Amino acid sequence: MSDETDMFVGAAERGDMSTILRGCEAGMVNVKNQYGWTAAMMAAGSCQFDVLKALVDHGADLNIRDNDGYTALMLACGFSPGGHGDDIVRYLLDHGANPSDGNNDGWTAAHWAAANGYSKSLSLVAVDEVLDVRDKWNDTPLYHAISFNKPQCVFVLDAAYVSERVRPLHA
Fold first, then answer.
1. Cα gap 130→126, rounded to integer Å
2. pLDDT at position 164, please?
3. Which residue of 32, 40, 50, 142 has the fewest CB atoms within a 10 Å radius of its CB?
4. Cα 57 to the center of its chain, rounded Å
5. Tens digit of pLDDT for each residue in 98-125?
6. What's the average model confidence in pLDDT over 128-146?
């Protein structure tokens, strides 16, 4: 990894738009640092929305995985400061981020949002195909919401589970 790569990826966390735009023009949009993080991952995890938009406009791949299997969506659901990543989560989903992807431990974006109590982000990523996904310890997002004492997330998951599986008797 080069110092140039570290500066570009780090610029996303700081919101340094001029460095981001220069790097994008130089073809660095999807480069990874030593941990496998891209600038899009860094922007998503640190709530740098304008930086993320610029990266997507320059072709950022939102489903690239870091060395531990994390994607930009997982980072937005698990590490956004104070859980303020809801708009970023929506944007990532609207631009092709896959909510079904799991990291090397099997945690999806729903596992991260549930464990951290980010109920709004959880409501966006709690789609049918992730409701029952189990991590390598056999735990679901609902288990994490309960075990980390996140009652609002329990409610979101319960409502998602019912809406995905219970069909009206009269159609």
1. 6
2. 63
3. 50
4. 18
5. 999 999 999 999 999 999 999 999 999 9
6. 93
**pLDDT value of position 119:** 93
Calpha distance 90→101 (Å, rounded): 16
Residue with tokens 């995890």: 45
pLDDT at 128: 81
Q: What is the full DSSP assignment across 134-169?
A: --TTS--HHHHHHHTT-HHHHHHHHHHHHHHH---S
Distance CA 78, CA 16 (A): 22
Q: Write out pLDDT tens, residues 49-90.
A: 999 999 999 999 999 999 999 999 999 998 887 667 899 999
pLDDT for the residue 166:
54
Q: What is the dihedral of CA 153, 156, 157, 161, to 10 degrees?
A: 170
b/e per residue 66-100 (b: at least 16 CB within 10 A): beeebbbbbbbbbbbeebebbbbbbbbbeeebbbe
Cα 119 from Cα 153, distance rounded (Å): 5
- Distant-in-sequence contacts of 129-135, Cβ < 8 A, 24+ apart: 129/99, 129/100, 130/99, 130/100, 131/157, 131/160, 131/161, 131/164, 133/100, 133/102, 133/106, 133/108, 134/106, 135/102, 135/105, 135/106, 135/107, 135/111
